[in-house]
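Weekly puzzle thread! Below is a chain. First person to post its structure in token form gets bragging rights.
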Amino acid sequence: MDCHPFYHRIISQAVAAGAHTPVWEFPCKEASALRAAQFMLFAQVKRGSGCLGCAGQHHPRRASGDHFRLTGHKWFCSAPMSDAFLVLARDEAGLGCFLVPRVLPDASRNTFLIQRLKDKLGNRSNASAELEFANTVGWRVGEPGRGVRAILTMVGQTRFDSILGTAGGVRQSVAYPNRWPRPYGMPAAAVSMRLSRACDDDAGDSERVFRRLGTALTKYWVCKRGPNHAYEAMEYLAGNGYIEDFPLAMRSREQPVMAIWEGTCNVIALDILSWMYCERWPPNPNLWMRFSRSCG
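Winning reply:
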């Protein structure tokens, strides 16, 4: 699979700056905030390059037990050029989560058949594909039959990255008009940095609750506004904003993907209600009020 040279250039610069996975390799108090700031900066240049941010989160040591053979069709796979993937598949125990590497421990290639690339509205710098698995090797991640629960760790992170990507796009959109009538994008950036603190390893119980629900709510609040904000930026520049010489036309095609991926608004709402029901949360009204104030 061939990518545009600028894609490789941006990826190389992001990796050199430490904007990919060092936050999990070398955790510290400020690691998530640093990554969030770097992510938003690179997202201003090209959002598609940020879609590899989660490829390295789940180290193979999370997978356990014997390997499985996966067979079937996967209708949508983002970034098929990556080295490993988390895949939901059914076995005797139910719906499970499996780590599927491109290269096996014996250095041979895993069966990973790309049927076609998706013809998407935007986000074209990040390839998406349909796949076919045929006795493809995968290792179980998490408990048998609890695949959704296991993959939700990644989903939470990619939702957070969708927030960061939208905020970066908002910043790019306001960088081209000479002035705006009011400061756009500041609340999105502020809540992104607040959530990044809850992602650190030393976050306490209340911070983990905030991360779980705050990420979902913020993903809805920020990403839902991204497409309309891109349109407003185009209108502010009038005809100049509508031509491809400016990046706003590209940004108007790019912003909707962050609202769609990893949970549209109805999925977000159902996910929050399901979690609150299963966890019997909040345990007391005071905690609920604190959470509401934290969400702004």
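Puzzle host: Confirmed. Bonus trivia for everyone else. The longest strand covers residues 63-78.
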